[in-house]
Amino acid sequence: MPWLSYQKALNRALGDELARDPAVFVLGEDVRVAVSTVTAGLFKRFGPDRVLDTPLSEQAFTGFATGAALSGRRPVIEFQIPALLYLAFEQIVNQAHKFSLMTGGQARVPVTYLVPGSGSKTGWAGQHSDHPYALFAHAGVKTVVPATPEDAYGLLTTAIRDDDPVVVFAPAAALTARVDVDFARLGPVPLGVGRVHREGGDVTVVAVGHLVHDALAVAEELAGDVSVEVFDPRTAYPFDWDGLAASVAKTGRLVVVDDSNRMCGLAAEVVATAAERFDLLAPPVRVTRPDGAVVPFAPALDRAVQPDRAQLAAAVLKALKH
Amino acid sequence: MTRAPDTDAGLYRAVRLIRRFEERAVELVRSGDVVGGIHPYTGQEAIAAGVCAALREDDVITSTHRGHGHVLAKGADPGRVLAELAGRATGLNRGRGGSMHAADFGLGILGANAIVGANGAITAGAAWAARQEGGDRVAVSFFGDGAVNQGVLLEAFNLAALWRLPVLFVCENNGYATTLTVADGVAGTITGRGAAFGMPSVTVDGMDPRAVLGAAREAVDRARAGDGPSLVECVTYRFDAHHTWEHKARPRYRTEEEVRSGRERDPVVIQGARLADPERELVDAEVEAALADAVAFALGSPHPDPVGALDFLYATGMRARPGGGG
Ligand SMILES: Cc1ncc(C[n+]2csc(CCOP(=O)(O)OP(=O)(O)O)c2C)c(N)n1
């Protein structure tokens, strides 16, 4: 079976959706020559009306996408770096996301915001290492963080077909993931449906994106002593609460690993909901970036603010002590 | 009401309707039937009337926090606009939008927008999509003099000019961004900002519906012909407050005398003088009757059911988790 990389999966999903639906178009900075590689080959295949190189005008092209979507198109914006979402926050959260409700259901804004290379990329420092998915989940914008190439393909496909705005975060540390897949079996993955990557009976570890791979590594490492279930909600919002409930019903213990900041991050919500709804045998534990972290430049400092495998292993053992 | 026709009588009906709509809306703010207040458009009616008279029904507009006039001139039903202001289920937006978000997609009204300058970029995207579909539809963005200092609007100028999009940017220069004068807020000139992007940019008398119509028609023709965007600066004067909160707070930023002399050039009077008395009186009576119906419709309409407060949040019908305990 052929190998599929995460990056190639995104590229393939874009190509397939452009081919399937003439309303889909891609826009962003340097998408024509595909500096990020995610849009590779698309300009040649679909031409300038479907693949638009934009000026460095994040606010304008994000608002532009809203206008095009209100008029029947399905834009996919590629953002070169996650921090650009802060520039376009107004256009996404305050405009695109609010249109449907504010117009009493007259409008739909099917824009996909694709962010390849989110999160820490060692050495990229403060303004290039953010992973702001929790902000969008908080605002209620559909927020997707795929972990694997087949999920990257399937979730991006669904995001493009969805009638609401959807932000798709492709974590930098997941981009290199590769799997052996049968291309014929690639297909859309619904939003809000989690995936159990590994079954276990003692503790549920919740992770999205590249952290799923860390969780799997930790589960393997502890396999002799602890049976870890790895649950990937795949979409931070909507979140698969029922899937998580089923997992925790089995294990009774919960650990969350999350590389958004601790304060009001995804882990905070998971732990809070678990406290309200689940019967836990032990207090839940979370491993996150520190409160309000700004990622420092020096590699050792960057690593110091990221959740790591040792912390996760310790958190799992802590949850088991009770 | 249908879209403002481009005859003298049509322009008069539009300015008169908007004027009387705004006056009634202010009364309804005072009586508490419209909560949240409004940004009155009185004095600026010639712009909405003149620009929309140059448009077809399938053209699109985006509007501002001061949007009732644009929406009415593009053909929205006054009763449903008023019902929206009063937060009723029968409002244009089913009571979810209110004064600053009135939208009627069936009439090409992509929504008033409460973030100054934000609609410019949305308009550019709508214009691009219209061109992609084929045909010769155009898109109009209305904004104030305050908006020309918003980066996103200048970015939108660039995209529209660069890609020769069928857009008409209409700046309603009423001299003030809330209380800040143009002289204190705008470096250079407003048309200079359009010219910097290579857009034909003109200034017209924004109190005269005919003058606005003339400039708008030229720009719309250019856009339809594929020759790209234009900027029309309409010099106007806002007769009333920036927002009805001023009726109570009474901030002092312009003199009585300035307001009095500003009101002397009244678009309703200017356009009314172009009709014979009997014809004008007929329109006046018809507008009064239409507004009486609108008020009765709005105030007689049901309030939306709070259970559905977040209906329409997602186009896909996805439901948000409730926030109340339990
Ligand atoms: C980006 C932004 N900044 C500030 C505000 C608050 N605000 C609402 S209207 C307004 C003045 C706008 O002036 P102008 O664009 O000239 O339009 P006018 O009110 O004169 O019609 C301000 C500052 C806002 N809504 N959006």
Topology, element by element:
The complex is a heterodimer of chains A (322) and B (326).
Chain A: E1 3-5, H1 6-20, E2 24-28, H2 42-46, E3 51-53, H3 58-70, E4 74-78, H4 84-87, H5 89-102, E5 112-118, H6 133-139, E6 142-144, H7 149-161, E7 166-171, E8 178-180, E9 195-198, E10 203-206, H8 210-221, E11 228-232, E12 235-237, H9 241-251, E13 254-261, H10 266-277, E14 285-289, H11 299-305, H12 309-321
Parallel strand pairs in A: 2-3, 2-4, 4-5, 5-7, 6-7, 10-11, 10-13, 13-14
Antiparallel strand pairs in A: 1-8, 6-12, 9-11
Helix pairs in contact in A: 1-7, 3-5, 8-12
Chain B: H1 8-30, H2 45-53, E1 60-63, H3 68-73, H4 78-85, E2 109-112, H5 118-132, E3 139-144, H6 151-162, E4 167-173, E5 176-177, E6 180-181, H7 182-185, H8 190-195, E7 201-205, H9 209-224, E8 230-235, H10 246-249, H11 256-263, H12 267-272, H13 277-299
Parallel strand pairs in B: 1-2, 1-3, 3-4, 4-8, 7-8
Antiparallel strand pairs in B: 5-6
Helix pairs in contact in B: 1-2, 1-13, 2-9, 4-13, 5-6
The structure holds thiamine diphosphate.
Name a few traits of the molecule.
heterodimer, A: 322 residues, seven-stranded mixed beta sheet, five-stranded mixed beta sheet, globular, B: 326 residues, alpha/beta, six-stranded parallel beta sheet, two-stranded antiparallel sheet, binds thiamine diphosphate
